[in-house]
Sequence to fold (142 residues):
Amino acid sequence: MKNIIGCIAIGLVVFLSQSCDKESENGITNAKVSDRVQEGSWRITFFKDENVDNTADFSGYDFSFGANNVVTAFNGTNIHSGTWAVGTDDSDPKLLINYGIQATFGALGNDWSVDQLEVSRIALSNEISGGGGMDYLTLEKN
Fold:
């Protein structure tokens, strides 16, 4: 009987540890992504969308990720608002950004894989549907 209870207890501990905020192979968790993006404002230093470098489209914009899951881009004159969230796909943390159908900003909408998460830099990627390569987005802290 003690062995059965011991096995159940071990199984429960293993289950609970697997269902919590899982850490990817590179040590990134959803909680770390969420906390990091909310720390200050960010700028896009690289954005490659469908094999085209569109970084210049976001020059001068500062991006803020609010606790209310609203992402705001502001360049001193124009404001563009969208939504953001974190999630997991195949055990890998994702940063989900959605600007709807807004002209230029809609291109940022994706479920981005978090490749690197540093204090002042976040590197993201997304596989283009149909095996057409990769999209890349790099954010650096202002």
About this structure: DSSP finds two helices and nine strands in the chain.
